[in-house]
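Holo model, zinc ion. Inputs:
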Amino acid sequence: MKYRDLHIQTQREAPNNARTQGFAFLVRAGYVTRENVPTKLGEIALEHLQVLSSDPSFLLRLSLPTIGNDQETFFPIVTGDIEVAHCPSCKYTERLEFAKIKKTPLPQEVQLPLEKVSTPDCDTIESLANFLNIPKEKTAKALMYTRVSDGRFVFVVVRGDMQLSEAKLKAQVGEVRTATADEIVSAGAAMGYASAVGLAPSRVEGLKDALIVVDDLIPQSQNLVAGANEEGYHLLNTNYGRDYSAEVVVDLIQAKASDSCIHCGNPLNVLPVNILATRKEYYFENILRALAETHHDDKGLTLPHPAAPFDVYLMHVPGKETDTRAKAEEIYIALQSAGISVLFDDRDERAGVKFNDADLIGCPTRVTVGEKGLKEEMVELKSRMAKENKFVSLDKIISEIQSEHGYRTN
Ligand SMILES: [Zn+2]
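Output:
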């Protein structure tokens, strides 16, 4: 492709909305606009990735520091729109809302008798734990929902020091919404003082009783303080199995940073990421972004073969006696015939301007056709990552480039 046909617009400065260097260079090199919309050059880069993706090992060939599991592949990035839990030790990775953690039950206790106590103004776990002078771990937290599909009241119990993952709940019972005050009263519960002990049977004909769902740590936790379903009162020593039971006992907990990894017990990190692939599809714009974040230096992108949309940046330096551009055209055609993809900078610009753009756009190899070299039937070849350039005779260009890239046509 030719530079002028692609209407490439490079920028001298990074856009002021750039939060990462990769994005700044994608904009400066003219792959995307400041608003992150792909340009013509960007579209070609994306199509190129799409073609490469017919190879199942495609992502591995791009040399990206990805994390993931057998379902999804992610790229850590500060601007990521997804949060994952990630174990630096065993590499366990899962979307935060579905991440599993190792839970440590409190020491086993003998079950004590239920006791109703007055707890005025204790409608949060915080205030309750303070009032009774107990750790939050010794309380049961109630969350109340209504299932969208059938209107059934859903009563959820997790330990008071933990947070519910609504995603895990929905994966078990289907879509839910927060229960209304009326629905809570109808179920025999009291807002801020609710527990699964003694919930009323459904008063609506044909509607089932509350669906009780508890976290799997609850049956292992004795003598928890829970609501008395009466404003201003709580029950001491509620025990799962003796005082209430549940239709569903399952992991419901939202993981957080420093929770223990389910597999190895080491502390988890929480990282913002972009998704690169699921088993079914690739996210090419995110892959291009990940490439830019991973492969750049202070001058621009350093995209490796085969990730780069073009293997060669071909340019001519306008000459005084020789038509360097005509010679570059010949080389352009020859390289393409050999299956090498070329971006031909066909502008009559100064060498410095073109060198800067070549560095920004980041093709693996730059080929420069200049008057001096041509007198000796040579062109200048420079690998984007190398400091030095070298002169190669015209009849050796193709083989030289092919060996540099460990070339295979895609
Ligand atoms: Zn681990």
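Residues 87, 89-90, 92, 261, 263-264, 266 surround zinc ion (CB under 6 Å). The first strand starts at residue 67 and ends at 68.
Archived with the compound record.
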